[in-house]
Amino acid sequence: MPAIEILGLEKTYWGGFWRKRVKRALHPLRLTVEEGEIFGFLGPNGAGKTTTLKMLMGLVFPTGGSARILGLDVNDPQVKAQIGYLPEQPYFYDYLTAYELLAYYGQLSGVPARQCLRKVDRALKQVGLQNVSGLQLRKFSKGMLQRVGIAQAILHEPKVVFLDEPMSGLDPMGRREVRDLIQQLKSDGKTIFFSTHILSDAEALCDRVAIIHQGELKGVGAVADLTAKMDVKVELIWQGAVMPLSMRSLAERCYSGGDLYRAVIKQEDQERALDALRREGMRLLALTPVGASLEDYFLQQVKPADKPVEVTV
Amino acid sequence: MRNRLTLIAANTFREAVRDRVLYNLIAFALLLSGAAVLVGQISIDIEKLVVINLSLTAVSLFGVVIAIFVGIGLVSKEIEKRTLYTVLSRPVRRWEFIVGKFFGLAATLVVNTGCMAVGVFLALLYISHRLQKPDAWVLVALYFIVLQFLIVTALALLFSSFSSPIMSAVFAFALFMIGSFAEDLRGFAAMAKGITHWLASAAAYLIPNLSALNVISSVAHGKPVAASLILYNTVYALCYAAMALSGAVLIFEQRNLK
After folding, report:
1. Beta carbons of A58 and B14 less than 8 Å apart
2. pLDDT tens-digit series, residues A217-259
3. Which of A60, A169, A201, B36 is in Cβ range 3.0-4.6 Å of A54 for a Cys bridge?
């Protein structure tokens, strides 16, 4: 049984005085996440990631479609006892201490009071906040609040964990710790669905990713499968006085430093590029095949020229 | 369900208690009761009348201000600060959230009124040196004031479920003011004719009849309150608050939390 099934979930907002301006925040989305997977939901800001997550949490109602978590409708209270959710830029009751907040959330999730205290202690330890558990949250930094957010999402030991931009506001050490924590959750058998626009995190962690842009799904699959569809490229490094003009037109990216030049070109253009270098009398230092990265795939799917989908009827 | 309601109510109560504004209001109300004592000392033979009138009016006004200004923030603040997301993503139904919040603020107001009531009776003891049997009716007046708070809190929650905090405060305060003169509106409706009669009658029955819950003046004169009025007011206030709360729940159930 899939952990998450998104069955044509869509969301449209109507704006303007006469409510005639239509904005499609999410086109019908179909997605399946298997149990035990780390699934990355990628997209630029405003792509529809948070809207999708909010619909899965029952915070926003879909215009169409439905979704199931662990085989049950997302609005079923039984489902909610088995999921954990970290919202984007979380904010909590700042008059509570970290300990009080987690105890409150734990009990709301149905954890019996006696077990709750033990689980709170464990969650605080997992996110490295055990020494400040008695401090009111209004005294916490952004990074510490993010850790509290992660703790509240995992303290009741949910089967599926939804994390909206979990690395946001964390320093490099914190990001590393969260990455380790996500991997630990996976090894504990949990399913993790997280949205991010930090591609290196997704590449390092995810079994599969989906890319969403302007509310539309652009691609889904394992990182290796997605990048395999990309053109193979080569990187050339040479020494010379100037950058040959023909090379400028062939290269996707050019860099120079002193009399050293570096260019990334498509493999099919390799011979033409080498000819150009020979003609200009440049000295080739290195020719290296470059595997396509998730970033390359992402940038190909998310074209900056695309305009937001907004129509007036 | 009961456990979740209790948890949300307890957290709402904790928030209010840790809010310094609430402490200031209690201190200010106690101060006003003290001032009532001073006024009582310069009023010949009517010290008690003045003290009861002033102090109970202060209890009512301060409570209403708390009910409105805390009440309008109960939902809107949670949405604005997004603290709601981590609550509603748990096995908490939306109606449980609204009702829990209502009970939390209601408990706050009961405790607050209890503190103020102690001040009122201390002031009475100060001027009379002993409490008399008719003074017990002050407790009934305080009970009616609490019933008023329940109605005002439910209305504040209703307005805050679809409107901005400022507009919610304006609506709730306006209804409180109109409701305080509900008997006059009913009198006008009885005298009016034609469509004016129907419109005035509809308005009179739609707005909360808070004037029926105001027995401060008669209690200050030592007059007893009929048991039937206590029963009628209790049923009326609970039904009105329940209806306003149901409206808040119905609206909130449909709301997208963007």
Report:
1. no
2. 999 999 888 888 777 788 899 998 888 888 888 888 788 888 8
3. A60
